[in-house]
């Protein structure tokens, strides 16, 4: 028909949306075992279960620079390894503020090359973009880790920070909050 305006069949569109939603729900329940209290576990490929949080889960997703590893050893020491090629140990700041290890680093003056500031330089491939590292916080609870016994070693561009556990974790029962009845 000449001059006919194309139209959208809303019924078909909604059918496709509902079908996609049902498919998504089926796939979600096929891959995860949902438990009371909002907990879930990922199902393994052969019907077994696996923990959804493993070594391939990034617990610090906001900090992609510098590359780092965070892990716990058998003696429960907390280890942080930072890849800091191009940095000098005198330009790295590491401290504790309450339950957090605070990390930052500044590039030395000699690391800012002329190519970084020259607009006439054309890169064929550029993956190494060195920049200052602003304040980043990493959780290391004061009641469980001996922050005063931390050991930080900078060798071959890798900063390895080892925080040993406390012999006896602080047993803080917290503060009891009294609940009163308000009868008006």
Task: Provide an overview of this structure.
The protein has helices spanning 10-31, 114-117, and strands at residues 32-35, 39-43, 49-50, 68-72, 78-83, 92-97, 100-105, 133-139, 151-155, 158-163. With 184 residues, it is α+β, with helices and mostly antiparallel strands. The protein has 2 domains: 13-50; 68-163, Sandwich (Immunoglobulin-like), CATH 2.60.40. The strands form 3 sheets. The protein has a 4-stranded antiparallel sheet with strand order 4-5-10-9, with no helix packed on it. Strand 1 (32-35) and strand 2 form a beta hairpin. The radius of gyration is 27 Å and the shape is flat.
Write the layout of secondary structure elements.
Blueprint (H helix, E strand, L loop, with lengths): L9 H22 E4 L3 E5 L5 E2 L17 E5 L5 E6 L8 E6 L2 E6 L8 H4 L15 E7 L11 E5 L2 E6 L21
TL;DR?
The protein has 184 residues and is α+β, with helices and mostly antiparallel strands. The chain has helices spanning 10-31, 114-117; strands spanning 32-35, 39-43, 49-50, 68-72, 78-83, 92-97, 100-105, 133-139, 151-155, 158-163.
**Number of separate strands:** 10
- Named CATH architecture of the largest domain: Sandwich
Structurally, how many domains make up the residues? 2
Rg, nearest Å: 27 Å
Q: Could you name the CATH class of the largest domain?
A: Mainly Beta
The first-to-last residue Cα distance is: 75 Å
The overall pLDDT average reads: 78
Strand content: 25-35%
- Alpha-beta classification: alpha+beta
Helical fraction equals: 10-25%
Shape: flat
Supply the number of helical segments. Answer: 2
């Amino acid at each position: 028909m000449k001059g006919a305006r194309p139209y959208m069949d809303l019924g078909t569109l909604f059918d496709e949306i509902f079908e996609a939603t049902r498919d998504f729900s089926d796939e979600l329940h096929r891959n995860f075992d949902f438990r009371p209290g909002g907990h879930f576990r990922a199902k393994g490929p052969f019907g077994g279960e696996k923990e959804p949080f493993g070594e391939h889960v990034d617990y610090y997703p906001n900090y992609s620079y510098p590359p780092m590893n965070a892990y716990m050893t058998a003696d429960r020491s907390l280890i942080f390894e930072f890849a800091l090629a191009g940095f000098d140990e005198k330009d790295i700041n590491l401290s504790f503020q309450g339950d957090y290890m605070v990390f930052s680093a500044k590039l030395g003056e000699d690391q800012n090359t002329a190519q970084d500031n020259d607009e006439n330089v054309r890169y064929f491939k550029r993956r190494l973009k060195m920049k200052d590292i602003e304040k980043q916080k990493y959780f290391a609870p004061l009641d469980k880790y001996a922050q005063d016994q931390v050991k930080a070693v900078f060798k071959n561009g890798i900063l390895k920070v080892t925080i040993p556990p406390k012999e006896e974790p602080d047993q803080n029962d917290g503060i009891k909050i009294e609940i009163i009845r308000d009868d008006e």
